[in-house]
Amino acid sequence: MTLQIGIAGITGRMGQLLSEEVAAAGAVVAGGIGRSGDAEALFSASEVVIDFTNALTAERHAELAARTGRPLVMGSSGLSPAQEAAVAAAARSVPIVYAANFAPGVNLLFALAERMAAALPPEQYDAEIVEMHHRQKVDAPSGTAIGLGRAVARGRGRTLEEVGMESGRDGHTGPRGTGPIGFATLRGGQVVGEHTLLFAAGSEHISLTHRSFDRRVYATGAVRAAQWVIVQPPGLYDMKHVLGMA
């Protein structure tokens, strides 16, 4: 039977790419909504829903996924801790893939970041993350940058909240602290997405960089996640599970 995929955010740039990639994967677009629309009807008509809207709809869509029993692939960024908690609560009833980034290369970057952080002690290697996106992006740092920070913290046996974030440095800030992860945000033009993780020590610097040139890579990854999550048990997943890296 052909997989019926619903798209929340179908009128945006990503929504159009998702529609094309759903068809390319041999699935069918069951329906879609834009900034407004009947989300409950969309979930009811679909076997799985891909959500690329925004953080404000995250709780509502997660709750609908749990209530209708429809798996959810969520790519919205900038979720607050409370919104992330709501998504995690819904995932106890239905499988949800919630990812900071759906590009395979970025998820490999997350894995490398964690391994490198485990090998490079924070007392000697400061971790700094620099990201740049198009001028229309409304949240900062990006979800992918936060994901990188979490990977670094995880590699060091802690959470990002525990190690702390240093961002928006301005004026006389004093010397850099030992342990916190630095974030720098750039916005301009139509950059799809660039992320660099830098480990800086007194004797060497090591950097990893990922550049996205086409948003289609996110759409392709999201459709792949939708095909994967439809047969999974309830739980909160990310792209490392979809890619077989978990």
Automatic annotation (TrEMBL):
Pfam families in UniProt: DapB_C, DapB_N
Residues annotated as binding (S)-2,3,4,5-tetrahydrodipicolinate: H134, G143, T144
Reactions listed under catalytic activity: (S)-2,3,4,5-tetrahydrodipicolinate + NADP(+) + H2O = (2S,4S)-4-hydroxy-2,3,4,5-tetrahydrodipicolinate + NADPH + H(+); (S)-2,3,4,5-tetrahydrodipicolinate + NAD(+) + H2O = (2S,4S)-4-hydroxy-2,3,4,5-tetrahydrodipicolinate + NADH + H(+)
Pathway as given in its UniProt record: Amino-acid biosynthesis; L-lysine biosynthesis via DAP pathway; (S)-tetrahydrodipicolinate from L-aspartate: step 4/4
Binding site for NAD(+): G9, I10, T11, G12, R13, M14, G75, S76, S77, A99, A100, N101, F102
CDD domains assigned to the protein according to its UniProt record, in alphabetical order: DHDPR_N
GO CC aspect terms: cytoplasm
Domain Dihydrodipicolinate reductase C-terminal as annotated: residue spans: 105-243
Entry EC number(s): 1.17.1.8
Keyword field contains NADP: yes
GO biological process, one term: diaminopimelate biosynthetic process
PROSITE patterns for the chain: DAPB
Chief localization: cytoplasm
GO MF entry, a single one: NAD binding
Keywords for this protein: Amino-acid biosynthesis, Cytoplasm, Diaminopimelate biosynthesis, Lysine biosynthesis, NAD, NADP, Oxidoreductase
Stretches assigned to the Dihydrodipicolinate reductase N-terminal domain: 4-102
Subcellular localization, as worded in the UniProt entry: Cytoplasm
Active site annotation, chain numbering: H133 (proton donor/acceptor), K137 (proton donor)
Family stated for the protein in its record: Belongs to the DapB family.
Function: Catalyzes the conversion of 4-hydroxy-tetrahydrodipicolinate (HTPA) to tetrahydrodipicolinate.
Subunit structure: Homotetramer.
Name the record gives this protein: 4-hydroxy-tetrahydrodipicolinate reductase
